[in-house]
Design brief:
Structural class: alpha/beta
Radius of gyration: 19 Å
Helix content: 25-40%
Strand content: 15-25%
CATH architecture: Alpha-Beta Complex
Oligomer: single chain
Largest sheet: 7 strands, mixed
Order of helices and strands: HEHEHEEHEEHEHHH
Number of strands: 7
Number of domains: 1
């Protein structure tokens, strides 16, 4: 009997996979410019569809679980809006844990100053939840990546100047690693991409669980100008 099975990794097998991928969209369910730029710098160009999820709906107290639940909500919300269109949808959310308390985006400048008064010279844990939905296969993978962040000791004038830029009000934990706030972070323990808002090594593993090679994304969704909606 002749074996007609196509071996994995063969040219015909790759063409079959490419055909399936060609019908898929790759969607980032986040308005974060940092997440989008991180993916593009890694050679992957998703389109952007903002979830519009009300984050106050989730009242989970565990920081890592909260980050994952928010990521799941965002990914599912966008997946539902696609109406059955084959797609891989990426949802992410980050929260900072300090002294056992959860800190998302500060509500105003006063809260951002208070946060920095508590954070400077200390260390916190940045939890970033990830959710990857394959709408065609009806499969979902959700994980959390946790990174310890060691903060520098900016003085009051530096904190006031930083808060006045508006950057701390737009990000979880009231700081960035890849922006103006980078000067106030002494170091991190873990994946620095996670602090930016999306962990590339973890996301690669999640795609692998869905049977997708990360390097194939470079070909299917090259990092060029991509649509948003």
């Amino acid at each position: 009997m002749t074996d007609t099975t196509t071996p994995p990794g063969s040219a015909s097998s790759d063409r079959a996979v490419d055909a399936i991928a060609g019908a898929h969209r790759l969607v980032l369910a986040s308005a974060s410019p940092a997440r989008l730029s991180t993916l593009r710098a890694a050679g992957v160009g998703p389109e952007v569809i903002v979830s519009g999820v009300d984050e106050s709906l989730v009242g989970t107290e565990d920081p890592a679980l909260l980050a994952v639940e928010l990521a799941v909500l965002k990914a599912r919300a966008v997946a539902d809006r696609l109406g059955g269109t084959p797609a891989w949808v990426i949802g992410c959310d980050s929260v900072l844990e300090l002294d056992g308390e959860v800190h998302g985006k500060p509500a105003d400048a006063a809260e951002a100053r208070t946060r920095w008064s508590a954070m400077r010279g200390r260390s916190g844990v940045l939890h970033t939840g990830h959710c990857l939905v394959d709408t065609a296969a009806r499969r979902e993978v959700a994980r959390s990546a946790d990174t310890v962040v060691h903060f520098a000791t900016p003085d009051d004038a530096e904190v006031d100047a930083y808060v006045a830029t508006g950057e701390p009000l737009a990000v979880a934990g009231a700081f960035t690693l890849d922006g103006l706030g980078g000067a106030f972070v002494r170091g991190v323990e873990g994946d620095p991409h996670t602090v930016v808002g999306i962990g590339l090594p973890l996301l690669r593993e999640m795609f692998g669980e869905l049977g997708v090679r990360w390097t194939d994304l470079w070909r299917w969704f090259p990092a060029t100008d991509t649509p948003s909606g």
